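Thread: Modeling a multi-component assembly for a lab meeting

Hi all, long-time lurker, first post. My supervisor asked me to bring a structural picture of a complex we are working on to next week's group meeting, and I have zero experience with this. I have the sequence lines for every component (582 residues in total). Could someone generate the structure of the whole assembly? Inputs are pasted exactly as I received them:
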Amino acid sequence: MRPFTPAHAAVLRAVHRFGTTVEAAHRLHLTQSAISKIIARSEASLGVTVFERREGRLLLRPEASALMAALDSVDREWGELRAAATRLRAGQETPLRIASTPSIGHGLIARALRRLTSEYPRARVELIMGDAPTELSSGAADIGLMFSPRVTDDITLMPLAGGEIIVLVREDDPLAKRRAVGLHDLKTRRMICFDREKSPLGWLIAQTYEREGLEYAPFMTVPYSISAAHLLSEPGDVTLIDSLLTQAQRFDGLAQLSLEPRIATTICLMTMRSRPLSRLAARFVEIVSR
Amino acid sequence: MKLGSLRAVDAFVRLGGTGEAAQGLGMSQSAVIKTLRQAEQELDLSLATTIQGRLVPTPEAQSLVRQVQPLFDVLRRARHEADMIRVGMADRLRVATVPGLAHSILPPAITRTRRKLDESAAVEIMFDHVREHLATGEADLGISYGPMKAQDIADIALGQSPLICVLARDHPFARRMALTTGDLESERLISYGPDGVSASDSFQEALTKAGLSDRIAITVRHTDTACHLAREGVGIALVDGFVISSNLVEGLAALPLEQSPLVTAYAHHRRHSPLDRAARLLLAQLQERSAS
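Re: Modeling a multi-component assembly
Sure thing. I ran the full set together rather than chain by chain. Output:
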């Protein structure tokens, strides 16, 4: 049996609407013989005669009125599907979901998204602030960006960019006049920083403290660099954060200093090995990898 | 965008691979892969990608397949309408119903309607998704346990009935006049489960109000099944009282549940498309029968 297609439905509807093969051909930009052939093929495929010829016109057989109503639905759904395909191409149907920390989101991701949305103006994007490996594994995110994450075997890691840990102090702090400070300079200061267990950056900083023979004991732990920067309000307090944040955002009243020894950080892109990327996600990876 | 390509993408996504799709479509795996690649060109979308040595559907392919299902549905409907013309049933009365009411109030009403029409009316009965069948014009009349409360669909209450307990004649309770929910405590109960699509279901509401919805051990779709299970002594079937007017409870004891909440049967039709004579007659029969 030859398949009955939406294109056949469109021709039968046009013949029903306009009454002649000539007019249907004119409206559909087809030849009259093409219309006649499609009617014959459609009727053969459906196994019924749809029209009867009377005084040079093709009239719908009375018993075919429910069939014609069904063909109207075929035409409507075909149109819906074409629109859906257009939306898929534009990235509207499969939103790009990125899990990251705010400092990566404000800098690297924001720059990549500016490029992506210029190529896909109707793209839908969801930025998730949370633990990227967890969001990826649960299927809530397509892509994760994070500093040196600990991941499972099903997640691929791609190093993207490097940075370093920097020191933020208030502008009225005596340390603010210096360009760089050592960890030993900070040992009497109240520290706002990351938790060594919950944050890969916290773990990196704690390791460096131990190598220097110092105790890593922040009085306040925070999940993100941006939280630390906003919480730095008391004179004498210091915070160690990643350098990406201050590249992306200004913090009035705060001074930025280099840290000695240098603690290098690496931003990694994460995707699931077993899950294919959507069009938008694949393009985002291309852009951000450059 | 070609229908054949869409069918290949559908099989690929739903069956989970090109080998499986080839088997399902009765074509070679290489033909499936070629069709997928053609579809990618036609649609300008990536639909399949290799992961760990295997072609798997992309998120776009999965989304496309979700969105192509309504088109496949209406194409099936068009074919069905053509089949109906071929077998002389183009002009038929189409009734969408829930299984619980299909074999109780409907059969006698259809029998009397056909008699009034000199047995000339062809009838098509379809189950479930009553609202969708009505909304898409696939059904002329709907019958269900609850009002649809939709602007374009009229709800007509047909009648009310308490819950009825159907049990085998040799059951120790069979000679009683009625049962209480307390009597049912140590019994295995058989009834309909929620259909998951109806917005309102007075049968399920009655079970809940009677405190029995968590007590159903065996759920069935059809009244016949519930009655057969009761006949075999598997348990006590809880059904609506409309069943008593049918022959489904022959050879069984049917006892009312004391202080039972009421179950309401409804008929539905589209407000703005007039019912033809057969549908009007069937509706009148349903109303008359339920009132009596």
